[in-house]
Design brief:
single chain, alpha+beta, Tetrahydropterin Synthase, Chain A, 4-stranded antiparallel beta sheet, about 60% helix, about 20% strand
Length: about 290
Amino acid sequence: MTRQTFLGVIVAILLVVLSNSLYVIRETQRGVLLKFGEVVDPDLKPGLHIKVPFVNNVRKFDGRILTVDSNPERFFTQEKKALIVDSYAKFRVIDTAKFYTATNGEEVRAAGLLSQRVNDGLRNQVAVRTVQEVVSGERDQLMQAITAQLNEVASQELGVEVIDVRVKKIDLPPDVSESVYRRMNAEREKEARELRSEGKELAEGIRAAADREVTVIEANAFRDAEIIRGNGDAEATRIYADAFNQDPEFYSFVRSLQAYKETFNAGSDVMLLQPDSQFFQYLRDPKANK
């Protein structure tokens, strides 16, 4: 082996050793230093570090806030009514040694364990509340209680801090939803029938009142018209009487002429009258009444 080849091998070995000796912990990461699988440094700071090759090993974890999305689960309320609750939780690693020991550093395993504990907490909290309280009445208190309880358990067992637990959706089971829908539909139809009945009754009352008002108005109008007509006839009679009293002869003559006009316009060819009838008194003698 030549000297250059020997130096090349030595350099390659040094590079391999050096590459296995240096490692970097980023600002968004947490890490532990292991020695033959045993944790010797549970809190590696961000930056460049050195380890002993083939003796030490480094496990890195995400130090940011992570999300675990639990599968929807069926829980029973205080009234023994089933609810399908879909939830999620926010957490982050705070104790790397405990996290590594409990989960072997696997985020998927940590999420599964945390999801199980979230569902257990929800089951316990939902069991002591009614449907109304779970859905709206005490929902904030429910989330706060679960978060505090879960954070205490998770920090002791998994080395993580639970920041928040939230419910995404609360549904009724499909079999219950159908029966609830039918009951709600029946209640709405009953309410609609009652409203229609009340509206019809109110309409009949309004219509009857309107008809009664129309009858009263027509009666009052007819009464007023008859009074006006009577006053007019009385006034006309008074005027006729005054005119007649001013010149009875002229008035009688005019009345006779009017009678002649109406008679002769009738178109009759024959008139049977006595010769001395007063009908033709002005034709026989213009001064008959003088």
